[in-house]
């Protein structure tokens, strides 16, 4: 009941005119960026990060949350209408969603996606309201050894589970940690990787790295690709933007199954919404095979409903994990963690005590954002498709200029602009060779946390490394991590065996 009372107070903060405006702006920006192929909520938050320091923390994070939710909504719009997912989390929605659109059911497909996203998001928000305080209480028992185990868990999970190649995932992680340790060591005062450059003594700004890797790197990557024929044959979405009773009956079980699959992945650092969307789609496909009249492959509404609900169910619980544990499970969450630190705030149990207006106002804004996004996406989805009519040279040139202006506005340093360009080229190279970006961002954000807590643990134990294995919480984290790695390794080994068997059979 205390959580309900605090949530009601949070609605009092979130429903003020200015904060309500930030909710709407965040939802609009997130949806607009989401419908543009290659862009996403992480890029939108990265671009907004330098410009929000003039806002109060509550307004800034309410807008970030709207962008986070809106990005997933916008991704599915293009996945359905043009078979062009904005982010990998919307790939599963293209399989049946685009087939629905091609068969003349585009409005029903968009309505299925919007309602599924709404259900998944609302359920996850309700779970977070009651779960986040308990997670915060749990994290109050964390010491240096536990936080180091948590950071190690995030490192290993994101680099080995999310990436197709474990080597590429580890390379991105090491690169992120390496960037995070540049500067003067706070304990010994020793220069680390500064090469005698005075501008690097204070380290590399996380804002610069974020904007360079996620935004400018994407611009350079898009500009480098051979111009391909644009798919201007957008499926017309005219007709009733709602579902019939029979369609609702068909989609409802898939919505709730997808929500149940997506909820746990908000607190498991495996890259966000990508994994649960494919799991939800795979489950519905297996269930469809048992039916007398299988629908998959012909525009099955359940094949769209489940991934949409699963993807959006991760967002609320991901924010709960970020607020209560300080654990980012995706690149977008990692950027928001960096924003908390820019405001001098540290997510965790103390945040609930020191800034309750911010925490509960932010949680209340999740519910408001879901309603706003449902209103924006049900009737106005065809309008979002028109953003694709903007010529790519103008669109990406504008983003590049916006990157430079944002960085210069925060630092007033020409050196930071050159660093922005250099790291942006690095981001382009990573994309070019398929190196995942999420481990890099996780390493950049959690690297200092892991280093600080490792030092504190060793100092408290007089250099005894056994301190990392004496805590029950740390041991549980290590066991779960080993189990996840073993399960992932076995799954990949089995997939390779199946591929070999199929190749031998075809030969």
From TrEMBL:
The chain crosses the membrane at residues 20-49, 61-81, 109-132, 144-163, 170-188, 200-221, 321-340, 360-380, 387-408, 414-430, 437-454, 466-490. The keyword NAD does not apply. Pfam families: TctA (PF01970). Keywords: Membrane, Transmembrane, Transmembrane helix. It comes from the Bacteria. Residues 20-442 form the DUF112 domain. This is Tripartite tricarboxylate transporter permease. It comes from Brevibacterium rongguiense.
């Amino acid at each position: 009941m205390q959580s309900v009372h605090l949530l009601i107070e949070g609605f009092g903060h979130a429903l003020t005119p200015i904060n309500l405006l930030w909710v709407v702006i965040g939802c609009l920006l997130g949806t607009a960026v989401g419908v543009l192929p290659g862009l996403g909520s992480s890029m939108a938050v990265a671009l907004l990060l330098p410009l929000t320091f003039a806002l109060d923390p509550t307004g800034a994070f309410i807008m970030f949350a709207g962008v986070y939710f809106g990005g997933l909504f916008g991704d599915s719009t293009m996945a359905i209408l043009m078979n062009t997912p904005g982010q990998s989390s919307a790939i599963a929605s293209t399989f049946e969603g685009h087939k629905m659109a091609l068969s003349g059911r585009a409005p029903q497909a968009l309505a299925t996606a919007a309602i599924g996203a709404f259900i998944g998001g609302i359920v996850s928000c309700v779970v977070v309201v009651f779960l986040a305080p308990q997670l915060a209480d749990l994290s109050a028992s964390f010491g240096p050894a536990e936080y180091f185990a948590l950071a190690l868990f995030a490192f290993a999970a994101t680099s080995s589970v999310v990436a197709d190649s474990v080597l590429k995932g580890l390379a991105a992680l090491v690169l992120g940690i390496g960037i995070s340790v540049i500067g003067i060591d706070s304990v010994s005062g020793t220069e680390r990787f500064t090469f005698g450059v005075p501008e690097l003594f204070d380290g590399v700004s996380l804002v610069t790295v974020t904007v360079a890797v996620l935004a400018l790197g994407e611009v350079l990557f898009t500009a480098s690709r051979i111009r391909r024929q644009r798919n201007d044959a957008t499926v017309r979405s005219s007709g009733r933007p709602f579902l019939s009773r029979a369609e609702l009956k068909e989609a409802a079980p898939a919505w709730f199954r997808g929500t149940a699959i997506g909820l746990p992945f908000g607190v498991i650092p495996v890259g966000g919404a990508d994994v649960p969307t494919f799991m939800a789609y795979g489950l519905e496909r297996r269930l469809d095979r048992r039916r007398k009249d299988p629908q998959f492959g012909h525009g099955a509404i359940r094949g769209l409903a489940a991934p949409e609900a699963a993807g959006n169910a991760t967002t609320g619980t991901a924010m709960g994990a970020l607020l209560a544990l300080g654990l980012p499970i995706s690149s977008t969450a990692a950027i928001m963690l960096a924003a908390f630190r820019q405001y001098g705030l540290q997510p965790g149990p103390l945040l609930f005590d020191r800034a309750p207006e911010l925490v509960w106002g932010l949680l209340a804004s999740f519910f408001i954002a879901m309603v706003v996004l449902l209103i924006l996406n049900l009737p106005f989805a065809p309008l979002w498709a028109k953003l694709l009519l903007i010529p790519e040279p103008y669109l990406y040139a504008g983003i590049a200029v916006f990157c430079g202006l944002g960085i210069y506005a925060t630092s007033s340093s020409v050196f930071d602009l050159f660093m922005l360009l250099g790291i942006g080229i690095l981001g382009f190279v990573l994309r070019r060779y398929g190196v995942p970006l999420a481990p890099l961002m996780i390493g950049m954000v959690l690297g200092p946390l892991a280093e600080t807590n490792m030092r504190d643990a060793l100092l408290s134990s007089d250099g005894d490394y056994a301190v990392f294995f004496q805590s029950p919480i740390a041991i549980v984290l290590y066991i779960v991590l080993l189990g996840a790695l073993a399960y992932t390794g076995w799954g990949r080994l089995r997939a390779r065996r199946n591929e070999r068997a199929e190749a031998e059979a075809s030969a």
